Task: inverse folding
C-alpha cells in the first residue's frame, strides 16, 4: 500500500508525487491515460503574474511561486539531465489607447512596491516603442507597450518529461498509466479502478484535472452544485525563425509564446460550452489571425500543431487546494484553471506539508476547499 496515492499525472499530480517522495513517502501515481494526457500536455506554458494593483494574498502567493520556480526547475534539470525549456523572458502588453496607457502607468507604480521579493525587483515599464521592431507590431500599440520583467515561459511537454524522469529516479515511486480511478472510498481509504481493482492508500491527492470534480462528488457529502467545471481552450504551435529569448506577447486574451527551437505557441480560446473537447475549429483560426496581427513574423512560420484541452475551473474560480474538511485522508490539488504552470510546485508543497504536519496549510483563503464548498452552497444554478 502506498503512503500517498496521487490521481492524475498532469503538472499538479506529478508535483504532488515529487513533494511526497522528497518527504520520504512511498508514492503511487495512477493516470487514466498517459502522463500529460490532460491540459498540462498542451502548447503554451506562459508564466504570467496577476496585475500588480489591488495587491492581496493570492497575488503574493503567485509572485512567490513564480520566483521560486526558477530554482526548482534548475534542480529538476540537474537531477534529470533534461531541459524544461524555461526562461524568464518577460512579457509585452500592447497599449491600444491613451486610457490604457494611463492605467498602465498606475500599475507601474503598484509594481514598484508589490513586485519585490527577497531583494529581487521586477519591473512593469511603459515604453513608447517595442524593444524589438515588429514584436509586437506597431499598429497594435498606438499608445505604447508595457514590458514586465517577471513573466516567462516553460515548455509544457518538456516540463512533464523532466518531472517524470525525476520521479523515475526516486525510490518507492511508481507511475501507472492506463489506470482509471472511478471513485474514492475515504473511510476505507481505497480507490476503485474501472477494471474492478482496488488500491488502498494512506493518503490520496486528487489531481485529476477536470475529472477531480467528479471524484470529489464520489466522496459523498456532495455540495448542492458541481464543485467545478471544464473550460475548453484551443491553441496552435508554429515553427520559424523566432528567437526563444523574445518576451511573451499578451493582448486581450491572446498569447504569443516563443519556445526553444524556433517554436512559438499561440492561444487561446475560452469556451464554457463545447461538443468535442479535443476538436479544433474556426475559433482557433480567429486566435491565429489575432496572433498574426500582433506578431506578423508568424505569417512566415509553419503551423505544426493545432491542439485543444480542458482547463479545470473550480467553482470559486481559484485553485482548490488542501485537505477535505470531512475526510482527512483526502487532499485536493486542482482548479489551477489558467495559471497552474507557475504555481503547481508551491501548491503541492503545501498539500504535502499539511499531510505531514496535520495542521492546515497557509493558503490564500480563496484557495481552500471550504471556500469552494461555501461558493457551491451560495451560487445559484
Ligand atoms: C489552451 C490552453 C492554454 C493554457 N495555457 C496556459 C498557460 O499558458 N499557462 C498556465 O499556467 N496554464 C495554462 N493553461 C492551463 C493549464 O494547462 C492547466 O491549468 C493545467 O494543465 C492543469 O493541470 P492539472 O494537473 O490540474 O490537470 P491535467 O493536466 O488535466 O491533468 C489531469 C490528469 O489526470 C488524468 N485523469 C483524469 N481523470 C482520471 C481518473 N479518473 N483516474 C486517473 N487519472 C485521471 C488525466 O488523464 C490527466 O492526465 C492552459 C490550458 C489550455 C487548455
Result:
Amino acid at each position: 500500500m502506498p503512503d500517498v496515492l496521487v490521481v492524475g499525472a498532469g503538472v499538479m499530480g506529478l508535483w504532488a508525487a515529487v513533494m511526497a517522495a522528497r518527504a520520504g513517502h512511498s508514492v503511487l501515481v495512477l493516470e487514466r491515460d498517459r502522463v500529460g494526457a490532460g491540459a498540462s500536455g498542451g502548447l503554451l506554458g506562459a508564466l504570467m503574474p496577476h496585475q500588480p494593483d489591488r495587491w492581496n494574498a493570492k497575488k503574493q502567493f503567485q509572485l512567490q511561486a513564480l520566483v521560486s520556480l526558477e530554482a526548482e526547475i534548475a534542480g529538476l534539470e540537474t537531477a534529470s539531465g533534461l531541459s524544461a525549456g524555461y526562461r524568464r523572458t518577460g512579457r509585452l502588453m500592447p497599449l491600444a489607447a491613451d486610457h490604457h496607457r494611463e492605467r498602465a502607468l498606475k500599475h507601474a507604480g503598484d509594481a514598484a512596491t508589490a513586485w519585490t521579493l527577497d531583494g529581487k525587483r521586477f519591473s512593469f515599464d511603459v515604453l513608447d516603442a517595442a524593444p524589438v521592431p515588429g514584436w509586437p507590431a506597431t499598429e497594435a500599440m498606438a499608445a505604447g507597450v508595457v514590458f514586465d520583467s517577471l513573466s516567462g515561459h516553460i515548455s509544457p511537454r518538456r516540463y512533464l518529461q523532466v518531472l517524470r524522469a525525476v520521479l523515475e529516479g526516486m525510490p518507492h515511486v511508481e507511475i501507472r498509466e492506463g489506470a482509471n480511478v472511478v471513485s474514492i472510498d475515504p473511510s476505507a481509504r481505497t480507490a476503485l479502478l474501472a477494471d474492478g481493482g482496488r488500491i488502498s492508500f494512506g493518503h490520496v491527492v486528487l489531481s485529476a484535472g477536470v475529472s477531480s470534480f467528479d471524484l470529489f462528488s464520489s466522496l459523498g457529502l456532495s455540495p448542492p452544485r458541481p464543485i467545478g467545471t471544464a473550460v475548453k481552450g484551443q491553441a496552435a504551435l508554429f515553427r520559424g525563425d523566432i528567437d526563444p529569448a523574445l518576451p511573451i506577447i499578451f493582448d486581450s486574451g491572446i498569447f504569443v509564446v516563443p519556445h526553444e527551437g524556433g517554436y512559438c505557441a499561440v492561444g487561446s480560446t475560452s469556451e464554457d460550452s463545447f461538443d468535442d473537447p479535443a476538436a479544433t475549429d474556426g475559433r482557433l483560426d480567429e486566435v491565429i489571425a489575432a496572433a498574426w496581427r500582433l506578431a506578423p513574423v508568424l505569417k512566415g512560420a509553419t503551423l505544426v500543431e493545432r491542439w485543444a484541452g480542458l482547463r479545470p475551473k473550480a467553482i470559486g474560480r481559484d485553485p482548490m487546494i488542501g485537505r477535505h474538511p470531512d475526510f482527512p485522508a483526502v487532499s485536493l490539488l486542482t482548479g489551477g484553471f489558467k495559471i497552474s504552470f507557475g504555481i503547481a510546485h508551491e501548491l503541492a508543497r503545501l498539500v504535502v506539508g499539511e499531510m505531514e504536519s496535520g495542521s492546515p496549510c497557509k493558503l490564500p483563503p480563496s484557495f481552500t476547499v471550504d471556500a469552494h464548498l461555501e461558493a457551491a452552497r451560495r451560487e445559484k444554478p
